[in-house]
Design goal:
Number of domains: 2
Length: 207
């Protein structure tokens, strides 16, 4: 996606599930990506396997010149890399900022694919990016997926909408199954609608 092409992004706190996923997407969409975290993790291993450099530990001197910083919500304001960026007027963004851009770009793709006249072209784009896929199979799957992905709810609230009650039902089920070793998390600890609200005008209302 053009929003990421040619940009130099440095993810502070790159080793978590959410930040690592965004870093991988940004790299796939043409950004120069690197980052740091306080400790190694399985996500760091995946990032390095994908060709993304990860520094263990936080230090001002490892921030690339002119990089835009993407900062995890777990990072303190006095983090040396963040302080370094502010002192040099580097752009800084939160994970939510980047996620909103990703969501807007993704919504454009789904809106395009939803149109019956565009579906063959959408599959053509997909197979061009992932040549291991079978175009005929993907074309058949697309119709089924679109029926599942769009509904009266997406017509009212836009692609990607989520129902908090569904998340709460899942939490309740996991609690009944004894999946939480310490305590049952609250709904607001595991999901948020903030990014969906921030992108409401950019997500097509179709269904």
């Amino acid at each position: 996606m053009r929003e990421f092409e040619g940009r130099r992004l440095w993810f502070v706190g790159i080793g978590g599930a959410g930040m690592s996923a965004l870093a991988l997407v940004a790299k796939a969409w043409g950004a120069e990506v690197g980052g740091s975290d306080r400790a190694r993790s399985s996500y760091v291993d995946l990032l390095e396997a994908a060709g993304i450099d990860v520094a263990i530990g936080h230090s001002a001197d490892q921030v690339p010149d002119g990089a835009e910083l993407v900062v995890s919500s777990a990072i303190a304001p006095d983090n040396p890399e963040l302080v370094h960026a502010h002192a040099r007027d580097y752009k800084t963004k939160t994970r939510g900022d980047v996620l909103a851009k990703f969501l807007k770009a993704t919504a454009k793709g789904w809106e395009f694919a939803y149109g019956p006249a565009n579906r063959d072209k959408a599959v053509e784009y997909l197979v061009k990016e992932f040549p291991n896929l079978n175009a005929k199979d993907e074309r058949e799957a697309l119709d089924a997926m679109l029926k599942f992905s769009f509904s009266p709810r997406t017509l009212a609230e836009g692609w990607g909408t989520m129902e908090p009650a569904v998340w709460q039902d899942q939490i309740n089920l996991y609690a009944e199954l004894g999946q939480f070793s310490k305590r049952v998390p609250k709904l607001e600890e595991v999901m948020t609608l903030d990014v969906l609200k921030a992108t409401a005008d950019s997500r097509a209302k179709i269904g």
